[in-house]
Structure formats: C-alpha cells, structure tokens
Amino acid sequence: HVQLVESGGGSVQAGGSLRLSCAASAYTYRRAYFAWFRQAPGKEREGVAAIITDSSITGSELTNYADSVQGRFTVSRDDAKAILYLQMNSLKPEDTAMYYCAADLIVDRSYVLRRQEYKYWGQGTQVTVS
After folding, report:
1. Is 34:77 a contact under the CB 8 Å cutoff?
2. Does pLDDT of 61 surpass 90?
3. Distance between CA atoms of 128 and 21, rounded to whole angstroms?
C-alpha cells in the first residue's frame, strides 16, 4: 500500500509560483511511478506531469508533461526524503484546481498521464490563481 500526502497549495497571483510536495511511503518509493493530476470544478481530472525511473541501475528518470504546462511546470523527486515535487511557475488563472499526487508500481509508459493507470492517490491540495 502506498500512502501519499500532498502539501504546498495556496493562493497566488497570475505570474507567480508555487511548489507542491508529495510525501510517499518510503518502502515503495523507489519502485513507483509518480504523477501529478489536477481537477477544476466541473471538469475531468487531468494529468499534469509524471516522473518515472528509467533505469534502476543508473537512476535516470523520464518526465512527461501536459501541453498546457510544458515549460512552466517541473516535476522532480528527492529520493533521500521520498518526496515528489511539482514546481509551478508563470501560473495562470486556468491552473486553478485541486492538485493530486498519484502513484503505482506498474504503469503503462505510453499512458503515464492517464488517470486510470494509478491506484494510489493523495487527498489533494488546492491551488488558486487570480
């Protein structure tokens, strides 16, 4: 079982920045695929960014971003702390949503931003951009 706890949400003006954090259960952390999703009121939950370990030997990682956040958001992980991050810059009002951290041990690499690929979810953290 993977436990995820997000933090770092808040209110910010357009053009500002926020960094979200997701603390994960350490015992599964290194083997898991992680992603950030968001859901605005009345809309479907959408994938924002994903990060996977491409090689367990070299530790190289692959990242994937939704077109709407490419170049503005950066997903990263701190293996020592078992924390996933989402750095969000140049925020826009349309970025307003509840942001969720998701994880699973097996994910189809062709669909890392598809909601159905992930079994474990955090409780969400609200981001409001005005």
Report:
1. yes
2. no
3. 16
